[in-house]
Automatic annotation (TrEMBL):
Organism encoding this protein: Oreochromis niloticus (Nile tilapia)
Keywords: Cell membrane, Disulfide bond, Glycoprotein, Immunoglobulin domain, Membrane, Receptor, Signal, Transmembrane, Transmembrane helix
Compartment list: Cell membrane
Residue spans crossing the bilayer: 28-49
Methyltransferase listed as a keyword: no
Protein name according to UniProt: Ig-like domain-containing protein
Presence of the UniProt keyword Transport in the record: no
PANTHER family with a match to the protein in the record: BUTYROPHILIN SUBFAMILY 2 MEMBER A2-LIKE-RELATED (PTHR25466:SF14), T-LYMPHOCYTE ACTIVATION ANTIGEN (PTHR25466)
Location of the region described as Disordered in the Swiss-Prot/TrEMBL record: 613-635
Composition bias type Polar residues, residue spans: 613-625
Main localization, broad class: membrane
GO BP annotation list: cell surface receptor signaling pathway; cellular response to lipopolysaccharide; immune response; negative regulation of T cell proliferation; positive regulation of T cell proliferation; T cell costimulation
Length: 635
């Protein structure tokens, strides 16, 4: 059949007329058509069957149920000598049925006495597996495979098991928490109940009608409790006293018969909400809260520590014990008065810095070293940020204190590389001690020890100065009196110009009177690696070095005269094009040390060609032009 469109003699489009051609349909076209149809149909069927057979059914249950069934039913006729094998995703045999009976000797020991299959399973086609006492450790994909006598696969099916673990969430510092475990099963009088933590340490053991404290791990001694008549009531819940964040995790309650057969197994996950305190380093002090309503005896010992086991503060026998605390906290901590009476054991930490960011633990003991209360607090001290644009004449890194500083104190500013930025000692600046990178670039206020204003002024900052700066105040003996950090972020200079401009300047101004032997070099970032950099302009030995620059920039660059004296290292780039867009860097090297550095991002906006209604082609900038196109047309 052919379809042709005819037009009327008047030249206007008419309706399409259809007619059948007497020409035979080519055989190759028939074959192609059949092939296309088959591909479409087979593709659809493949998608359907793939979705049907590859989707794995899921079974979800709560931890603590007596059993769960992994379903598998078939209507296929199965031979009497068929073998049925269930395996987990770790290729361990879960259950094997062969020669008309179960084969427990073939299954993995983790599944011994925990699996069961129906009778006459080959006749009924019900190959489902029952798994007793499932826990989240059984969360796997299980595969049932049916084999013929010859070992050929007759049938295969997968089932995914997911056992949900109940969660208990408490605040750090609570007096106690209960881990629930209840059952309606009839438990024999001689049953054994055992609680274990995620490290398989024994938390609590109940056997022969009473607790067995000698069997539990020492960490849990005198801290656990179970209900009376627990086997009769079925309430096997565990009470854990003074829990801490370190004890977060999964706890397992297992009930055994006299023959060590598992009667029940259940898991509970313990989670903590730890209070967080967030401050900036500029605050004078911060309080880490720890309060309790329990009665604290007079001989109670209170101890604050960090994760590394450093002692932050110790209170004992009615007074502080500064000799027991780590030296980094000396003179910086304080507890409230009458703390044992009020139950307010909160710690005040003075002059916090980002070094103090840590997890703090407050523990109260009685005279027998029994824990009465234990609470954790997370402290996060943020470093203040100072952000400025590249090109400003100076930036101040602030640091003010109300502390009384001795006249012989030493003040030292350093960057993140431990390079000395500025040193003040013996009543005056010590420029010979600072690194040459910062020579003539820093300044501090007069009478800084009297006023407490230890701020640092950094002249002509660039992105090369981006760093975290630390100011430390030392006593004559070298002890740290005060420490503060400030993060400086100088935004990269952005320069934008339109293509067609005669030139563009990449600005870089720094301190005057740079070393006479300094070499100034501008380069671009042409490729991905450092060796892809191209030299844009080189100034050395008092003059430009055109033979060193890349040919792309020959006769297109210029720098000011006396640039080392004036500190004006700006570069003029002539006839910029779109290809010149990118990141440019300038470095000043003296005695093989990079003493100045700056980046400049150049964007050259190209021109686009626009055709107006008269057919003229005109150049237009790619930036938005509010002038209508028709206004440019000449008559």
């Amino acid at each position: 059949m052919q379809i042709r469109g005819q037009y009327s003699r008047l030249g206007q489009r008419s309706c399409c007329s259809l007619y059948f051609s007497t020409e035979p349909f080519p055989s190759w076209a028939k074959a192609l058509l059949v092939l296309v149809v088959l591909l479409v149909v087979s593709g659809g069927l493949l998608f359907h069957f793939r979705h049907y057979f590859m989707s794995v059914p899921q079974v979800e249950v709560d931890s603590g149920v007596e059993s769960v069934q992994l379903p598998f039913n078939t209507t296929l006729h199965l031979p009497e000598d068929a073998k049925v094998e269930w395996m987990d995703s770790g290729y361990d045999k879960v259950h094997v049925y062969e020669n008309g009976s179960d084969q427990p000797e073939e299954q993995h020991q983790a599944y011994r006495d925990r699996t069961k299959m129906n009778e006459d399973l080959l006749k009924t086609g019900d190959l489902s597996l029952t798994l007793k006492y499932p826990t989240d450790g059984d969360n796997k994909t299980y595969t049932c495979t049916v084999y013929s006598r010859e070992g050929n696969i007759l049938l295969k099916r997968k089932v995914e098991l997911k056992v949900r673990v109940p969660q208990v969430e408490v605040d750090s510092g609570v007096d106690s928490v209960q881990l629930p475990c209840k059952t309606t099963l009839h438990l024999p009088e001689d049953a054994k109940v055992e609680w274990k933590d995620s490290n398989f340490e024994k938390v609590h053991v109940y056997k022969n009608g009473s607790d067995q404290p000698e069997e539990q791990h020492q960490v849990y001694r005198d801290r656990t409790k179970m209900n009376e008549d627990l086997l009769k009531t079925g309430d096997l819940s565990l009470t854990l006293k003074h829990p801490t964040e370190r004890e977060a995790g999964k706890y397992t309650c297992t009930i055994y018969s006299r023959e060590r057969k598992i009667l029940l197994k259940k898991r509970v996950e313990l989670q903590f909400r730890v209070p967080q305190v967030e401050v900036v380093t500029e605050v004078k002090s911060i309080q880490l809260p720890c309060k309790t309503t329990i009665h604290l005896p007079r001989d109670t010992k209170v101890e604050w520590m960090v994760k590394s086991s450093k002692k932050v503060h110790v209170y004992q026998n009615g007074s502080d014990w500064p000799e027991d605390q780590d030296q980094s906290y000396r003179g910086r901590t304080e507890l409230r008065r009458n703390l044992l009476k009020t139950g307010d054991l909160s710690l005040t930490l003075k002059y916090p810095t980002d070094w103090d960011t840590d997890t703090y633990t407050c523990t109260a003991y009685n005279n027998r070293k029994k824990i009465l209360i234990k609470k954790e607090v997370v402290l996060k001290v943020k470093v203040p940020q100072v952000e400025v644009d590249s090109g400003v004449e100076s930036v101040q890194l602030p640091f003010n204190t109300t502390l009384h500083l001795p006249e012989d104190a030493k003040v030292e500013w350093k960057d993140k590389y431990d390079t000395k930025v500025h040193v003040y000692e013996n009543g005056s600046d010590q420029p010979e001690e600072q690194d040459q990178v910062y020579r003539d670039q820093t300044k501090m206020n007069e009478d800084l020890l009297k006023t407490g204003d230890l701020s640092l002024t950094l002249k002509y900052p660039t992105d090369g100065d981006n760093s975290t700066y630390t100011c430390t105040v030392y006593s004559r003996e070298g002890n740290i009196l005060l420490k503060r950090k400030v993060e400086l972020k100088v935004r990269v200079c952005q320069v934008e110009v339109e293509e067609g401009a005669e030139s563009v300047q990449l600005p870089f101004k720094t301190t005057q009177n740079l070393p006479e032997d300094a070499e100034v070099e501008w380069w671009d970032k042409f490729g991905r690696y450092y060796y892809d950099n191209r030299k844009v302009h080189v100034y050395e030995n008092g003059s430009d070095q055109p033979e060193e620059q890349h040919q792309v920039y020959r006769d297109r660059t210029k720098m000011n005269e006396d640039l080392l004296k004036t500190g004006d290292l700006s570069l003029t780039l002539k006839h910029p094009t779109e290809r010149d867009s990118g990141r440019y860097r300038c470095g000043v090297v003296s005695k093989n040390v990079l003493i100045r550095y700056k980046s400049v991002q150049l964007k050259v906006k190209g021109r686009v060609q626009v055709q107006d209604q008269t057919g003229d082609i005109r150049n237009r900038s790619s930036s938005i032009d509010p002038t209508p196109l028709m206004a440019d047309q000449s008559v």
